Amino acid sequence: MIKVTNLEKSLGGSKILNNINLNIEKGSIYGLIGPNGAGKTTLIKTLVGIYEPEAGKVMINGESIKENTKIKSRIGYVSDFQYFYPNFTVSEMAWFYRNTYPMWNEEKYNSLKNIFKLPNKKIKRLSKGMKTQLSLLLNLSISPEVLILDEPTSGLDPVIRRKVLNLIVDEVSINNTTVLTSTHNLLELEQICDHIGIMYNGEILLEENIDEIKSKVRKIQVVFNGTIPEEIKNHKDVLHIDYKGKVYQFVVNDNLDEFIEETKKYNPILLEMIDMSLEEIFIYKMGGVGYAFEDITL
Ligand SMILES: Nc1ncnc2c1ncn2[C@@H]1O[C@H](COP(=O)(O)OP(=O)(O)OP(=O)(O)O)[C@@H](O)[C@H]1O
């Protein structure tokens, strides 16, 4: 698992990470979203030990990553830009990883090679998407205990993108790997992640368990027999109210059953539950903590 406490990092004289705390359970897929410049890559580089924080700690499986080559050899890291030796071929790069990472799995490498189907060219002759694929291929082959991915699907075509998402999910279900991935694609997060963190201005503004938030935050449509009761209008668990004519839509943050019971006391003509996408849920949740969701993502 990944545990981050009170992490602070400055670059070029500016504070980039501000008191970051994370607790990512083993076997979990944690999605990090946030606008350009929020600090996602800086956080990721600090997690893998490329940057040294001024304050705070990064622990992986209970051990500090600082000067810990044993732990670092079990971290798969796919960066936003790939820094391979440009004159190495794909096979030579695999040779390098095979000789560097003690838990290299040749069988896994061979089966992944059939999925990615990369030409054995020099790295400098590969496209951006091919280099990302190579990085995924190599980092999955080292038998990572922790996989840290910085926008791993950006620049991939839709077919490979889907394969990569499936590979990440397989990696977790087969090997119980812990994954942290950044992305700008909320739909992708919804498809593979169990937890999500929203980053803004170097801080984690909101952290949620996706299943929990989807079961807790619900939209309910109600038509009252008369005007809306004050008690319902000012209900503590209502995040947002919309209405068109007599049809009210409530976004309820928690204690759904309690809200429904209280609403039923007023004998509404209609009371029904409406499905919400994760994006819609976050729009309201972010509004609840004083931010416009559009400013925060995508
Ligand atoms: N080497 C550096 N020196 C100084 N400032 C930096 C450096 N690298 C990044 N920054 C600044 O740190 C902030 C966070 O950048 P970072 O790359 O972590 O954001 P991000 O959330 O990954 O953005 P994106 O979604 O665009 O990839 C930005 O304001 C950026 O200008």
UniProtKB/TrEMBL annotation:
> What molecular function terms (GO) are annotated for this protein?
ATP binding
- Give the InterPro entries listed for this entry: AAA+_ATPase, ABC_transporter-like_ATP-bd, ABC_transporter_ATP-binding
Tell me, what's a Pfam family for it? ABC_tran
Specify the ABC transporter domain's residue ranges: 2-226
- Name of the protein: ABC transporter ATP-binding protein
The answer on whether this UniProt entry bears the keyword Nucleotide-binding reads yes
Highest taxon, organism lineage: Bacteria
- Keyword annotations of the record: ATP-binding, Nucleotide-binding, Transport
Q: Which family does it belong to?
A: Belongs to the ABC transporter superfamily.
